[in-house]
Design brief:
Helices cover 6% and strands 70% of the residues. By secondary structure, the chain is mostly beta strands. Strand 2 and strand 3 form a beta hairpin.
Length: 166
């Protein structure tokens, strides 16, 4: 929706969103993740690599995130590797970046009865708001898992994070 609003602006309004800040960046972040059935926390790192030769603020953002989750009957840990694409709309010290891309990972869950490993593939959508170096992001992830404990399962989760760029 943000993209549609921005691209539908008149030529005079287009100068409001600057495209001259195209430097690569590092992002560390931590946050909360939730799905109907579990709650958890995560921490991660992403590298924002400008993929246009610094002509536009378009980035490939590979990263790694460690998570800990609590299920109704157990716990789990995991490592995910998001490979997002983002575009930075900036005005002054404020920017908005829509985010999308695949996520790959591994999770280990255990409870009092069984434990198991999941290899996961997902796709996430979301956005990041930044003021100077402080960021706030929301991501929605649709995930497909397959393990020895169950057949293919599709589930969704939400992530809310605060971060710092440098």
């Amino acid at each position: 929706m943000i993209m549609a609003v921005v691209f539908c602006q008149s030529a005079s309004a287009q100068s409001f969103w600057k495209t001259d800040d195209c430097d690569n960046f590092n992002l560390i972040q931590a946050g909360y993740m939730s799905e109907s059935g579990f709650n958890g926390v995560f921490a991660g790192y992403k590298y924002g690599l400008n993929i246009t030769g610094k002509k536009l603020p378009l980035y490939l953002e590979p990263g790694a995130e460690f998570h800990y989750v609590s299920y109704p009957n157990g716990n789990g840990i995991g490592l995910t590797v998001p490979v997002n694409v983002s575009y930075k709309f900036k005005t002054g010290d404020f920017s908005i970046s829509p985010i999308t891309g695949p996520t790959f990972g591994y999770s280990r869950a255990w409870n009092s009865e069984v434990s198991g490993d999941d290899f996961v593939f997902g796709w996430e959508f979301g956005g990041r708001i930044a003021y100077k170096r402080i960021t706030l992001s929301y991501r929605y992830n649709k995930v497909i898992t397959n393990s020895l404990l169950h057949d293919v399962v599709v589930w969704n989760y939400h992530k809310l994070a605060i971060g710092f760029t440098f």
